[in-house]
């Protein structure tokens, strides 16, 4: 899968994320990796001042790290999730 750094692709990732148990928030923060995952409360926070590329890369990393139940995903998001998991991320 080719990663496209566009607003449309970011929206697709956010849509996939919205179907999970996690809540995605964009906030100001000094996270060393650009994002923070609070696993107990199922919240993922991304630095809101990150560039579009940084937000997409952070979302991809988070999606690979968390456990997502594919039964809860729509067909298009299930396909996207499988493509993301088969892709080697290199930033």
Low-confidence stretches: none
Helix content: 40-55%
Strand arrangement, largest sheet?
1-3-2
Element-level helix/strand string? HEEEHH
Percent in strands: 15-25%
Instruction: Please tally the β strands and state the result.
Output: 3
What gross morphology would you assign?
Answer: globular
Class of secondary structure makeup: alpha+beta
Q: Name the average pLDDT.
A: 89
| Main sheet summary | 3 strands, mixed
Task: Measure the end-to-end span.
Answer: 14 Å
SS summary, helix count: 3
As for the number of domains, it is 1
Q: What does this protein look like?
A:
This protein is an alpha+beta fold and about 90 residues long. It has one domain. It contains three helices and three strands. It has a three-stranded mixed β-sheet, covered by helices on one side. A hairpin with a 4-residue loop joins β2 and β3. α1 packs parallel to α2. The radius of gyration is 12 Å and the shape is globular. The model has no long low-confidence stretch (mean pLDDT about 90).
């Amino acid at each position: 899968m080719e990663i496209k750094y566009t607003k449309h692709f970011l929206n697709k990732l956010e849509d996939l994320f919205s179907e999970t148990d996690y809540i995605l928030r964009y906030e100001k923060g000094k996270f060393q990796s650009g994002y923070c995952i609070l696993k107990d409360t199922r919240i993922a926070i991304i630095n809101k001042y990150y560039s579009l590329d940084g937000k997409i890369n952070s979302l991809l990393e988070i999606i690979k790290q968390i456990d997502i139940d594919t039964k809860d995903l729509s067909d298009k998001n299930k396909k996207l999730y499988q493509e993301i998991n088969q892709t080697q991320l290199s930033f």
